[in-house]
């Protein structure tokens, strides 16, 4: 069972998300909150698998809340913006994925399942835009890819292409559990919080940027 916490200051949005998710046999909404402080506090108490996080919320914004939840739960950002400064901030904070609040119900459900499995939500359709934006606005943070084993470098390249753990396993002829372990070790060695950051780093290094190059989706209503 995938345990989900929904954080959004718009009651109608929360109700809609909860209604969609609770219709799935493998997903349980364990709590819903209306601000970032409550999201952090409740996540610390209940340890959900996934937090669906709005960006603009009172008391504590979704980006700051995402940063505080690193290592506690995987955060899936929901925003109304296709690409903007808030999304970049969430990427740096360690968000595992992004969806637009206008996404359809099936896409939202599948996104929750992907993130719960440890996969990142990296959409090839916006990769170049994200790489370009990070190249223009991010301070380079060079990382030594030499700390990775040859296999971990292959895994990093797969992550940068947006492959899930299952797809990495098939491509590199290993079990899905082994692929997940390689991804975790690769992130740890590079000091990264999420697969999205790994994709940004890989893309940035191949584009001459010291860091980052993702492809993801976006999401969030009132902000």
Automatic annotation (TrEMBL):
Q: Which Pfam families match?
A: GerE, Response_reg
Q: Name one GO biological process term.
A: phosphorelay signal transduction system
* InterPro entries documented for this protein: CheY-like_superfamily, NreC/VraR/RcsB-like_REC, Sig_transdc_resp-reg_C-effctor, Sig_transdc_resp-reg_receiver, Tscrpt_reg_LuxR_C, WalR-like
Q: Which Gene3D superfamilies match?
A: 3.40.50.2300
SUPFAM superfamilies documented for this protein: C-terminal effector domain of the bipartite response regulators, CheY-like
Which parts of the sequence belong to the Response regulatory domain?
3-116
- Write down what this protein is called: DNA-binding response regulator
Organism the protein comes from: Planotetraspora kaengkrachanensis
């Amino acid at each position: 069972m995938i345990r989900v916490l929904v954080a959004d200051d718009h009651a109608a949005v929360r109700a809609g998300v909860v209604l969609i998710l609770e219709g799935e046999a493998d997903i349980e909404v364990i709590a819903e909150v209306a601000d970032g402080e409550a999201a952090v506090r409740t996540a610390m108490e209940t340890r959900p698998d996934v937090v669906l996080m709005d960006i603009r919320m009172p008391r504590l914004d979704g980006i700051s809340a995402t940063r505080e939840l690193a290592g506690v739960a995987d955060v899936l950002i929901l925003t109304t913006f296709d690409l903007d400064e808030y999304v970049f901030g969430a990427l740096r904070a360690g968000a595992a994925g992004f969806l637009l609040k206008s996404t359809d119900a099936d896409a939202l459900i599948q996104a929750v399942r992907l993130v719960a499995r440890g996969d990142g939500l990296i959409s090839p359709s916006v990769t170049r835009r994200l790489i370009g934006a990070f190249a223009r606005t991010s301070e380079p943070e060079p990382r030594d890819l030499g700390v990775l084993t040859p296999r971990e470098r292959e895994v990093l390249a797969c992550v940068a292409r947006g492959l899930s753990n299952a797809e990495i396993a098939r491509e590199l002829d290993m079990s899905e559990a082994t692929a997940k372990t390689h991804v975790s070790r690769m992130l740890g060695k590079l000091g990264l919080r999420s697969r999205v950051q790994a994709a940004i780093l890989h893309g940035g290094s191949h584009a001459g940027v010291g860091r980052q190059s993702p492809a993801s989706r976006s999401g969030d209503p009132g902000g």
